[in-house]
Amino acid sequence: MTNKARHPFRRRVRSGVDAMPEVEISEADNIRSLHLGSETVQSSMNLDDPTDLVLSYSRAMMGFLLFDDDPLHILQIGLGGGSLARFIAHYLPDAQSVAVDINPQVIAVARAFFDLPPEGERFEIVEADGAEFVRIFRDSTDVILVDGFDGLQIVDALTTEDFFEDCRRALSPGGIFVTNWWSGDKRYMTFLERLYGVFGGLVLELPAASHGNVAVMAFADMPEPTRWDALVRRAEELERKFGLEFGDFVVRMRQADPDSDRCLHP
Q1: CB 174 within 8 A of CB 220
Q2: Domain containing 43: what range?
Q3: Residue 51 domain-assigned (yes or no)
Q4: Tens of pLDDT along the chain (266 residues)?
Q5: Residue 231 lies in a domain
Q6: Which of the residues are catalytic?
Q7: Domain of 157: which CATH number?
């Protein structure tokens, strides 16, 4: 086992557990969902097929596979109901995956009710502040997936320039940062401008199919492919491999940037 997968970091640095939103579970039509202090669904699991990515934003976050479909190490900041962890364990079995969550109740509920992958050499859960934990890494994680919500809005500490810089330093050469934001958030363009600045303009927006979520990707280096026609061909290959709508991903990315033959042009 490499040194990438495990770290001794186990402390929380934000406010105590009492200040965190209460975790609730709902179930309807064989879909089990996790909520954080509101009716808003944060994560969902198909009880008949736990590896299925039920929510459109979680599928969009896997859009990074268009540029790297064989990452060796993945860091998840925000465990939720474990949708991404289950997908990764099933479709990327050779990847080492670390999921970090600051809320111990989220971790306990996910372990008990959301069919997480076995914890061991390939999958680890860490109770910690993700904004602090990422600082442990230096040029050593291939993909960072960020989905941090405090019950009311995106966690502020996961949208700062300092956080983006820490993530940029954590990525291996060719690494990809992915975050789930809501386009209706009045701070969205501010977040985007910060990310552009830190990643030298190598940023791509992939709107989810519903609810205004956007999977925003930032790249440590110029990836391949970047031409739209090459991405369409790539999408066809990946749809057969992973069963996600990569062709639609490419269409939605291009709709966000219709005036260039390339998806990235810093």
Answers
A1: yes
A2: 17-225
A3: yes
A4: 333 333 333 333 333 444 677 899 999 999 999 998 778 888 999 999 999 999 999 999 999 999 999 999 999 999 999 999 999 999 999 999 999 999 999 999 999 999 999 999 999 999 999 999 999 999 999 999 999 876 566 888 999 999 999 999 999 999 999 999 999 899 999 999 999 999 999 999 999 998 899 999 999 999 999 999 999 999 999 999 999 999 999 999 999 888 888 999 87
A5: no
A6: 147
A7: 3.40.50.150
